[in-house]
């Protein structure tokens, strides 16, 4: 069985503006670590289980070269560009077509390939327990015709994540466990989130997926036939090209890909399929989705502030000050509470901490004003 990792890294990360830009989204930022970008962390995390030559990145056309440049140790041909923006179901179908063609040419049919679909914007530790969890669920999908994900036992009533309902409460023990999924649920309100945590048989949806390639193709063909039925055609278009450092998306795939609906893999497949299981995460997990999530990553001072970079913080409480200018400037605050200040070389963003999810409004305003050089 050939194990393959596929990292989805096409997002723009607009909630991290002005640190994130069109050609430097959050997966290329040092948000968890001072020494590694988030996508470098993702590769290092899975590499004890899957060698770098079997790790693939699928991203947008605009990010193809920035990601290749940021990952010199990853084979350049392993970074795949989408011909258009079409959400995660078409994205994973295109990657499946590429992987099927690449490994078929060296003797691996689809039923001998298992895929770990991972993300480039999560904080996961310790790495050893991540590898143990992934190894367990990959072994399971290799021997059962199921689609799988990893669920996180919640430690707070979080309204920003989707949830997974299972029949029985998972044990809080360092032992791998797998159950059938009863239902996927959308992001709840506070009351529902409290109810889910109290019940004990609801998990956060990690957004990671695992399957054997043939299982994925069969299930997608059943539940999203307009995409699933095209995987073989897309795969044939990649014949003789999977070992080439393509300078962009493969032009012959464009017409087929643009015909696909804009739909997530959750809606298109995971919520509809009958043979879906979830593995309990043995590791600690956090989704780094906006600046306030840094409070769960970085230490705070005695007044609850996070200070990154060169700053002077006086009479300030519960705030996040992120100065990324590498000593080119200093940020000084006085008398602030619950404020976020982000400073890059050419932009400053200031907002109340409880409104960081709305930073995309500023991005859209800047775009509408034609000031795209700041995006």
Structure at a glance:
This protein has helices at residues 38-46, 64-70, 88-104, 127-143, 190-199, 213-223, 225-228, 231-237, 254-258, 265-270, 359-368; strands spanning 2-8, 55-59, 79-81, 113-119, 122-125, 147-152, 163-166, 178-185, 202-212, 276-280, 284-287, 306-308, 311-314, 320-323, 331-334, 339-343, 348-352. The chain is of the alpha/beta class and 375 residues long. The strands form four sheets. A five-stranded mixed barrel has the order 6-9-7-8-10.
Structure write-up:
The chain is of the alpha/beta class and 375 residues long. The chain has 2 domains: 2-288, Spore Coat Polysaccharide Biosynthesis Protein SpsA, Chain A; 292-374, no CATH class. The chain has 11 helices and 17 strands. Strands 6-9-7-8-10 form a 5-stranded mixed beta barrel. Helix 3 crosses helix 8. The longest helix has 17 residues, at 88-104. The N and C termini lie far apart (43 Å). 42% of the residues are buried. The model has no long low-confidence stretch (mean pLDDT 95).
List the helices and strands and how they pair.
Elements: E1 2-8, H1 38-46, E2 55-59, H2 64-70, E3 79-81, H3 88-104, E4 113-119, E5 122-125, H4 127-143, E6 147-152, E7 163-166, E8 178-185, H5 190-199, E9 202-212, H6 213-223, H7 225-228, H8 231-237, H9 254-258, H10 265-270, E10 276-280, E11 284-287, E12 306-308, E13 311-314, E14 320-323, E15 331-334, E16 339-343, E17 348-352, H11 359-368
